[in-house]
Design goal:
Immunoglobulin-like, mainly beta, 33 strands, 4-stranded mixed β-sheet, disordered C terminus, 1 helix, 397 residues
């Protein structure tokens, strides 16, 4: 008789005989094995395990072989999430049984699952034992309280922060900030907004790349890195400025300018008129000094104010004798349709001779004085009064 105990043990060792005879009749002593339950003998008694096998020599013949069969005792595998206290699932195994672990049932935002370990936080001093997700497990040694505890192992994800201009960047615009790869959940700060003379930058606006969700940024430009790549975009806008044109009594007939855009500039109107005056151009100061300005260049910035400069148109008037009766009949005349006075002077004495070197059209008489220059020459012997020279001061209303 031969026995295969499959790591079991029969006590005493000779409890089961190695031979038998026709007069022998006995029942096999069942073996024992640590961590296993004996499930029965197979062999000469058949393929179905039997926990009680009796040998009757009167009917048994020939050599006989018996194999001990074992059923491992159960133990429990605990799967802990390792990020939410008290969260776990279980799976039942048997000692000596090899089968696959259940698939990981947990998900963790911002982390990738990388397997199981018998230690929650492995270190070089305590590395624990690792198991792959759905990997095979075979335990032949006793477990404390018949339990195997496995903790999920996680690796934090990293994502990219990038910057881009959402429209065409003007010449001279700074390069966008460099991209950076950072860990999920880490505190980050938005790059400073770029600056460029003549342009306004909209500021950086962030969103996630996967679903386009807007990123929340606090007043200090700080944000928490989400579980996704993030892109910040911003746009440039050319500045616009105000232009004020002071006409000084004139009128802009066409080409009026009220503002300009940086990079474009503006041409100041040339079709400007004022009755009785010649337009000398626009000046950038109220004192009308310096060089006239005809245009605002593409590189200028800021609000602008320009003043129109004028010069009176000169009208020549020759000397004229005015009779007493003309002067008597022509008193000062006022033109109600003009902002200025048109004046014909009253007579002074019998005959007056005056000369106006120029007359300012549309002007108002501010002062006038008469100067006695003596009697007339011999060729004007008919004069009986002194001749007066009238001088006057005219200026714009």
């Amino acid at each position: 008789m031969k026995y295969n105990l499959n790591s079991g043990l029969v006590l005493p060792p000779d409890a089961n005989p190695s031979t038998y005879s026709r007069v022998d009749k006995f029942t096999l002593t069942n073996p024992t094995r640590y961590l296993y339950n004996f499930s029965g003998w197979t062999g000469s008694n058949g393929t179905t395990p039997q926990t009680e096998v009796t040998i009757d020599g009167s009917v048994a013949t020939g050599k006989r072989t018996y194999t001990a069969n074992w059923d491992g005792q159960p133990f429990t595998v605990y799967f802990f999430s390792n990020f939410e206290p008290g969260t776990y699932q279980t799976q039942t195994f048997k000692y000596g049984e090899e089968k696959a672990l259940n698939a990981n049932p947990f998900t963790r935002e911002g982390y990738d699952f990388i397997g199981w370990n018998t230690v929650g936080q492995p270190t070089s001093d305590n590395p624990g034992t690792s198991y792959a997700d759905k990997g095979n497990l075979l335990i032949n040694t006793a477990l404390d309280e018949n339990q195997l505890k496995l903790w999920a192992q996680w690796r934090i994800r990293s994502h990219t922060i990038s910057y881009a201009y959402s429209n065409s960047a003007p010449d001279g615009a700074p390069a966008v900030p460099a991209s950076a790869t950072v860990a999920y959940g880490s505190g980050q700060t938005v790059a400073a907004a770029p600056t460029l003379i003549g342009y306004t930058f909209s500021g950086w606006s962030g969103k996630t790349k996967t679903d386009g969700a807007a990123l929340t940024v606090d007043a200090n430009n700080a944000f928490t890195m989400p579980d996704d790549d993030v892109e910040f975009t911003g746009a440039w806008t050319a500045n616009t400025y105000t232009v004020t044109l002071v006409t000084n009594g004139g009128a802009i007939n066409s080409g009026n300018v009220t503002g300009y855009t940086y990079g474009v500039g503006a041409t100041l109107p040339a079709d400007v008129t004022q009755t009785g005056h010649t337009f000398l151009g626009w000046f950038d100061n109220e004192g009308l000094t310096g060089t006239p300005v005809t245009a605002i260049s593409t590189e200028e910035t800021g609000d602008k104010e320009f003043w129109a400069k004028w010069t009176p148109i000169a009208y020549a008037m020759s000397s004229r004798d005015i009779s007493k009766s003309y002067l008597r009949d022509h008193q000062p005349i006022y033109d109600s349709n003009s902002s200025s006075e048109t004046i014909v002077y009253p007579y002074t004495g019998c005959l007056a001779r005056f000369r106006m070197a120029s007359l300012m059209a549309g002007a108002t008489l501010k002062s006038m004085s008469a100067t006695h220059i003596g009697r007339s020459s011999s060729n004007q012997s008919h004069l009986t009064q002194s001749v007066l020279c009238l001088s006057m001061t005219l200026s714009k209303s």
